[in-house]
Design brief:
With 277 residues, this protein is α/β, with parallel strands linked by helices. The protein is 35% helix and 17% strand. It has a nine-stranded mixed beta sheet, sandwiched between helices. It is globular, with a radius of gyration of 17 Å.
Length: 277
């Protein structure tokens, strides 16, 4: 995989573009995610697909400036503007970065997808965020086994015994220990993209919001609030089990169908095991 580097607001940003033509979609990964873990979300999307690394991830710079959603939104904007993206998809932390970007330029993109949004305009104080702080400690201690166990605990109980899931958690832990991502785990645990979700009323382009049941790190109520705040949003809530472990084909169809459509012919259909809103 050959990546490129772009001068961002606070240092170099790593990205890769696959495919060509329009639509041009930029994909923003989640906390402790990567280009590689985000690429499956674009498997069914036509046109060009650009996957990026936020600060402290991959080969992107790790500036000393604060980790905020505003800073991440600026990095997302830099990559999107560089590749002339017409669409954007954000996963978890990436969804928060996308929200921060939209708060300032609500019509920057023609189409939007938010996957597993974790927070909007009110800081969370639940146990799922306590786990982020624990992960930061284990990453700083370079304790791969303990970090892998925390990552595995974040997966649904129905898939924790699967060898592929366990292997993924161990590989992720190995890639994270001793990296600046621990700063993000601490700083973003109580951060928000904006202080009033009403700013999203100006985001009038079509949007797709995807969540899953029984996911403490990404509560369904956050996705419901996001979908309600966006004027033209469709909400899909999938059954528990991991979006890319249990629902990979469904996700391909949902995201691919939505982001590969023109503004006038999109239809997001309900799938088995999903709850539409």
């Amino acid at each position: 995989m050959i990546t490129s580097l772009l001068e961002g607001p606070d240092g170099l940003l790593e990205f890769i573009t696959t495919g060509s033509g329009l639509p041009a979609t930029v994909f923003a990964h989640g906390m402790a995610g990567s280009i590689q873990t985000t690429r499956p979300f674009g498997s069914g999307v036509r046109g060009s697909r650009t996957f990026m690394h936020f600060r402290g991830h991959g080969a992107s710079a790790a500036p000393e400036t604060p980790w905020t959603y505003a800073a991440l939104g600026g990095e997302l904007r830099a990559v999107a503007d560089h590749v002339r993206a017409t669409q954007a998809l954000g996963v978890s932390m990436g969804a928060g970065a996308l929200c921060a970007l939209l708060a300032h330029t609500p019509l920057r993109f023609q189409r939007l997808a938010f996957v597993m949004p974790a927070v909007l305009d009110r800081p969370r104080t639940d146990e799922a965020l306590d786990r982020l702080v624990q992960m930061a400690r284990r990453a700083d201690d370079r304790d791969v086994e303990a970090l892998a166990a925390l990552l595995l605990a974040g997966e649904h109980v129905s898939v924790r015994t699967q060898p592929a899931v366990q292997l993924w958690c161990r590989r992720q832990a190995g890639a994270l220990v001793g990296t600046p991502v621990s700063r993000a785990l601490r700083a973003l645990a109580t951060a928000v993209p904006f202080t009033d979700r009403a700013v999203l009323a100006a985001v009038t382009v079509p949007a797709l919001v995807i969540a899953q049941e029984q996911d403490p790190a990404h509560p369904v109520w956050v996705a419901e609030q996001l979908a309600a705040a966006l004027p033209d949003a469709h909400l899909e809530v999938l059954a528990p089990g991991g979006l890319m472990w249990r629902h990979r084909a469904v996700m391909r169809d949902l995201i691919g169908g939505f982001l590969s459509s023109t503004p006038h012919d999109v239809t997001v259909s309900t799938v088995e095991g999903a709850r539409s809103g």
